[in-house]
Every structure is written in structure tokens, then in C-alpha cells.
Amino acid sequence: MHYQNKHKVMTFIIYQNILSFHQSAFIRNLAEKHDVTLIVQNEIEEKMLRQGWKKPDFGKTKIIINPDSDLLNKFMEQKDAIHFFAGIDAFPLSAKAFKIAIRNRLKIGVYSEPFNWLGWKGKLRFLKYWILKLRYNKHIDFILAIGNKGRWCFEKTGFSKSKIYDWAYFTEDIGSTSFNNKHTLNRFLFVGQIIKRKNILSLVEVCKKVDLINQLSIIGVGQLEEKLKKAIENTECAYLGKVLNADVYQKIAESSILILPSVFDGWGAVVNEALMCGTPVIASDNCGASVLLRDGRGKVFSIKENNLEQILSDFLRELPYSADKRKEIHNWALQNISGEAAVMYFENIMGYVYGNLSQKDVAPWLK
């Protein structure tokens, strides 16, 4: 299905906290076809620059950083534009603009990860989003719900099902990946923060149980670094700590499998990066990006059933993947979770919400 008004240039004003690396591929490609302004509170986190990240490329997008009230109000006067917000009441600048947009009766869209529904704090978040639904549901034209639990969270708290669309994060095509047959040995890789939510210590224990700890490499920094170092003492597990972003891609490309065992992850963009490298993934069912792991691109284990060990052991029978299989994964990623694919799907959503399309489209990664 193609957006019937694909030649009509639309105006989008997008409100975010920072210049997001996980949004640049989508927004840059959107700006190739439409008039796009990106308004952010802060440019980029300094710690990300220190980790080797480069300022993301937003192409033709007009970027406004921390506008004063007068400038912000000028954007809020644009009634023909579609005003597109990162979350509901999520960040100070976007929350302020969101409330002005409601007062001005503008065209409003929201994209958001699921809230963390776990534990007693999760119950409070359910209450918070139910209150947000009472206040704002009727004013929002569309909600792009990120991850396998995004739609569930919004539907569970009462937002209109007809307004909800499946959404994702989109990373850049690595481009330099070469697919060869060098993956003769299994190499497992974890990339992420060394914190409780990422469940890295459980992954270490599983790799010890199946006698594969010597094949595990870990990239990241965080509060549990000392506990991690103690857990891998007298093993051949490679804890690499902080690694420059360009080198992370190389490590992913050289690995047989990426493992993301998080107790909770709204999405998990490292999954996109792995698939762009042709590397299959094991992720927990509480990772939003686990929705991508079908048809040989990976496996999903259950946090509730605690069956990572079994899933990993079973998956080893399929590894290592051939060069052709890895190229197949890479090609699927380009066709379904690239910035270009995201824009085509987004245009269909806009055609349904504001144009003359009579049928909702399905997210390409779910087809």
C-alpha cells in the first residue's frame, strides 16, 4: 500500500528532549520528502559524545535548540502543521508545547515507549497513564506505540484503540558490513549499561552453566561493574568496558549472536544495530524490539519462565549462520526497519488519519 497523497508536501514539527540517535534515520528521510522542524530541549548528552557517538545526521531537517517562549509560541501558531511529541508530559519543553498545542487545537501526534509496568511502581504508572488518558485522549489524533508492549500499555489504560499504531526505533544502515564465513566459532555479545535492569549478571550465570562463558564478550559501563568483574573472575569472559561506537558495530558484526536479556527495555536499539549487521539476536520478551526476532532473525526467551538457558542451548544448534543467512537478515532490516521503510509506513498513517486512505496499514516489521 502506498500513501495516495505521496506528492503532497506536509509540515511536521517534532518535539524531543535531545537530538536522538534512534530517530535520525527516520527524521532525516522524512525531511527529504516533507517540511520538517525538530525542536529539542538539549542538543546531545556529553557522555554519549565521550563514548564515541557523533552528532546524528538529520539532513534537511530544521533544528531548533531550547527556544524561548516567544519562538516556541510562533511554532504553536502553525495550524496546518502536524505537531508530533515524544511522549505525553515526558520532558519539560515538549510537555509545555503539548499543552499549548491542545489549547490551540492543533493537529497532535505522540510517539512513546511503553511505561515500565513491573512491580508496585508499575501500578502507579498505570494510574498515571489512566489520568493522562482522561485529560488528553480526545485531543490526540494518533499514537505511535513503540515495542511489543507499547500498544498493550496504551490500550490497557484506555486510550482509543483506533488511534494507536505500532512503532519502533530506527537506526542507521551500518553500510560497511561484509558478510563472510569467518563465524566458525560461536561468539556471544552483550552491549548495554551494566545495571540491574539489563540483567547482565543473570546472563553471566547462564553462560557459566552451559560452559560458554569463555565465548561471551561484554560492552558497557554502569553501577554493577564491580559485581560483574567479580562474577567473571577466573573465566575467559571478555569484559571490554567502554568501547567507541564505531568499534561496537565491528564487534557486533564479528559476533555470532547478540544477547539482550533485559528485565525491561522499552525498545532496545542495539537489536536494530545487530540485525543491520546480519547478526541474529536473543532478547527477553520484556524487550520491545523482541517483536523483530522471527523467521530466523533470533529467539525470544521469557523473563517469567526464566528460560534463557534453554533458549540459548537450543539456538546453538542453528549457529553459526552462513554468510548468505547473515546477508538475508541484513536485507530484511533494510527493507523493514530502515529510515526509508519507516517513512513509507508513517506516510500511510498520515494518509489514514488526515488524508483519504480508508484502511490502516500494518507496520512492515510485523508483516
Report the end-to-end length measured between terminal Cα atoms. 12 Å
Which segments are poorly predicted (pLDDT under 50) over 5 or more consecutive residues?
Answer: 1-5
**What is the structural class?**
alpha/beta
Return the domain count. 2
Instruction: Please identify the top-level CATH class of the largest domain.
Output: Alpha Beta
CATH architecture grouping of the largest domain:
3-Layer(aba) Sandwich
Q: Could you say which overall geometry the principal axes of the C-alpha atoms support? A: globular
Number of helices: 13
- β-strand percent reads 15-25%
Kindly report the spatial arrangement of strands forming the biggest sheet: 3-2-1-4-5-6-7
CATH topology of the largest domain: Rossmann fold
On the 0 to 100 scale, the average pLDDT is 91
Q: In sequence order, what are the helices and strands, one letter per element?
A: EHEHEHEHEHEHEEHEHEHEHEEHHH
- Biggest pleated sheet: 7 strands, parallel
Can you count the beta strands?
A: 13
Radius of gyration: 21 Å
Tell me the helix content: 25-40%
